[in-house]
Amino acid sequence: MSTFDYQFFVVGGGSGGVRAARIAAGFGARVAIAENFRYGGTCVIRGCVPKKLLVHAAHFSADFADAEGFGWSVPPAQFSWPKLIAGKNDQISRLSGMYESNLDRSGVTVLHGSARLLDPHTVDLDGKRFSAEHILIATGGIPFLPSIPGIEHAITSNEVFDLAELPRRVLIVGGGYIAVEFAGIFRGLGAEVTMAYRGEQILRGFDDDLRQHLHDEMVANGIRIVLHSDVKGIERQQDGTLSVAVSGAAADTHNVDAVLYATGRVPNTEGLGLAEIGVTLDKKGGVVVDAMGRSTVANIFAVGDVTNRIALTPVAIREGAAVATSLFGPAPMAADLTTVPSAVFSQPPIGTVGMSETEALKHYAEIDIYRADFRSLRHSLTARRERTLIKLIVDAASQRVVGAHMIGADAAEIIQGVAIAIRMGATKADFDATVAIHPTSAEEFVTLKEKTTRKRHD
Ligand code: NDP
């Protein structure tokens, strides 16, 4: 019997930490978990969940406009930001409460406070000390803000969910997940939106066709995208508005009501005392771990965003489950992250799994590309010009589908099923042999008979 207060002490009550704690307790371990904010972590409190609610809210403006083509006369709609935020707050409070009560029901000791490691087996929680055989760091990430003059006037994804009112004009800095998602949210809710991105195209790392397609759709929806741009400074004017100097290809001064920085996130390790006790951190402060989630101190583990690898909730959950099972379950296991699908809840949304065309060309001698770019049936009766793009990337030699990408309505819902096929190693012939569901957009995944092009690695 271990003489420690706990066999497993989890620091951080987000997706990864909570899953690890509950699984460890399920195996009979004595487990405690500590959180210094609200249980649920970024995803539940100020990430995936509230963001998706806002995405739904934003989509109604398009739905009201499209209804006319189907015979509806819709009176001018009124939108209340405070009502949306109140509803969102109720929902996240409910979920956060559920996280705590589920932990409690699983037999985990639920603690509140800020943790600091004093040595590899001692956690200080706001002055109270606990000894622990194994410790899991699951403290997630925090927004990264570059230091430019006036950056204190900017908000991040931490504040955006609790604004007192909907800003009329917004400047969004960055071109990644959060930037494109919030551009769509604010635009759908009626704001004037400008995105300033330093690179040549938004969503670096995604398939180039998706990037261009989303760019075109966002512009068609009235979002201004300024590429190759750099924010030089932000000044607050006497009337409370913000003046933002942007340099680059389209140098300009933008007068807006809010500036949202979505310039990436960094691991949340400050103040945990990790480096002091020998835990190696990478240059962004992320905990360096092996395939089993073990840090350079043998009894200290880390999962999720704090490890600075794939910053996605379902990944953190897998990693948390793997660490807890390895320590207290029947056999050691590593999280299998060979094919991680993901979605961007932009408008229209993106669903993607496997390699982009550029990545595939680096891995395979020859690839076949299949594409369908079409206007969905729904939009045959609306004034919207929105198009859907579906793309398959196939290794020419083995005929395995190595990438599947979609931008269009319900892409996130559709790609989840496609991801199962890709993970199982489905070939193009398997896709072709699957009977279509008609009429859908998803059926294009199984009816792409003619290849668009074959490309060779050079
Ligand atoms: P991303 O890494 O997706 O994007 C960051 C953006 O900011 C990039 O466009 C980057 O440009 C730009 N940038 C970085 N540093 C600077 C700088 N100093 N000045 C100007 N621009 C800069 O981060 P996000 O903040 O959007 O999201 C964080 C993470 O959260 C995501 O990577 C994702 O893992 C996760 N997330 C997932 C979601 C989902 O699954 N739907 C939704 C939201 C977040 P460049 O491309 O040139 O590097």
Characterize this entry briefly.
This protein is of the alpha/beta class. It contains eleven helices and 22 strands. The strands form five sheets. Strands 1, 2, 3, 4, 5, 6 and 16 form a seven-stranded mixed sheet that branches. It has a six-stranded antiparallel sheet with strand order 17-18-21-20-19-22, sandwiched between helices. A four-stranded parallel sheet has the order 10-9-8-14.
* Range of strand content: 25-35%
CATH homology superfamily of the largest domain: FAD/NAD(P)-binding domain
Tell me which ligands are bound.
NADPH dihydro-nicotinamide-adenine-dinucleotide phosphate
- Helical segment tally? 11
Q: Structural class of the secondary elements?
A: alpha/beta
Proportion in helices: 25-40%
Q: Report the CATH C-level class of the largest domain.
A: Alpha Beta
Q: In one word, what is the shape?
A: globular
From the coordinates shown, what is the CATH architecture of the largest domain?
3-Layer(bba) Sandwich
Biggest pleated-sheet summary: 7 strands, mixed
Rg computed from alpha carbons, rounded to a whole number of angstroms:
24 Å
Mean pLDDT: 97
